[in-house]
Amino acid sequence: MQPTVALPESVTWRVQLDRAMWVAGVRALMLQALHPVAMQGVWQRSDFLQDPTGRLLRTADFVAATTYGSPQEAEELGERVRAVHRRLAFTDPATGAAHRADEPGLLVWVHCAEVVSYLEVVTRAGLRLTRADADAYLAEQTRTARYVGLDPADVPGSLAQMRGYLARMRPHLRVTREAELTVRFLLWPRVPRRLRRLAPLKPLWWPIGALAYYTLPGWARSAYRTLPEPPGTQEAATLGLRGVRAALHLTPEALYNRLFDEVTVRRARLARLRLEAVGYDLGHGFRGIRTTRRSHPDPGSVPRAAVDG
C-alpha cells in the first residue's frame, strides 16, 4: 500500500485537519488579492466570482490530497493544476505587460499567502504549536509547493524566512479596485445556482467572512478599510474564531463531510484504508490518530503575529 503524502505525526496534519481551516482559506484569498498582478490573473481568467464555493472546494481538495492523499493522488492533482496554470495568460492593465499564471513569482506569493493564513488562523483559533512546530510546518509545505510547479528551495521554509519574504513583498502590495470588490464579495458571496437550496443558510457565512477579514494582518486591514474596527474588535475576533472552531469540531463527521465534494470525501476513505493497513488506529477519526500518536506540544505557543510581525 502506498504511504500518505504527510504522516499523521507531521505538523501538516495538525494544522490542515483543523476545522478552523475554513476561515483560514477565505483569509488566504483576501491576502492574495493584495498582489495587483496575481489579482488580475484571478479577475480575468478565473470563475471565482461565478462559483466561489467551487474555488474553495477545489482548494480544500488540494489541501486534502497533499495532506493525507497518496503520492500518486497528489502528483496527479498537481499535474492538473500545473496544466491549467500553463494555459492561463492575462494582461496587467496598469503596465500592459503580458503574464502567465505559472510565473514563479506569482506562484510563490499565492503559496505563501495560503500557508501563512493556515498557520496564523489555526493557531489563533486555539491549536497549540511551538515555534519549532511552526518552522516544521513551513518546511513541510515547501515540499507541497512542488506540486504547483515551484522549486522547494525558492519557497520560505521557516518563520524567519517567511517574515523576510513578506517584508520584501509589502512595497509591492496594494488595494486595487478588483481587490476591494473581491473582499466585499467574500464577505457576502453570491449563492451559485447549484446550491440554491442552501440559500436560507447564507447568513451562516457572515461569521466566516468577517473573521477571515479581521484575522488579516493589521497592515492589510488598514489598506482595505472595508469593515469598521472599534476598540476591542481584535479581542472579539479571537473569541469568535475560537467559538466557530469549537462548533465546527463538535459537528459530527458524517454531517461535516457534506461540506466537501465527493472526490475529497473519497480521498479520506482511501487514506483511512492505507493508514489502517500499516497499523494506525482510526477509531477516533483523523484527529484522534493525531492525538494518540504524538505527545502534546509544550505550553509555549506561536503568537498570531509570529510570521507577519
Automatic annotation (TrEMBL):
It holds the Pfam family MPAB_Lcp_cat. GO terms for molecular function: oxidoreductase activity. The keyword Protease does not apply. Residues 13-245 form the ER-bound oxygenase mpaB/mpaB'/Rubber oxygenase catalytic domain. Keywords: Oxidoreductase. Its EC number is 1.-.-.-. It is an enzyme of class 1 (oxidoreductase). Residues 290-309 are annotated as: Disordered. The keyword Protein biosynthesis does not apply. This is Oxygenase MpaB family protein. It comes from Nocardiopsis sediminis. The lineage of its organism: Bacteria, Bacillati, Actinomycetota, Actinomycetes, Streptosporangiales.
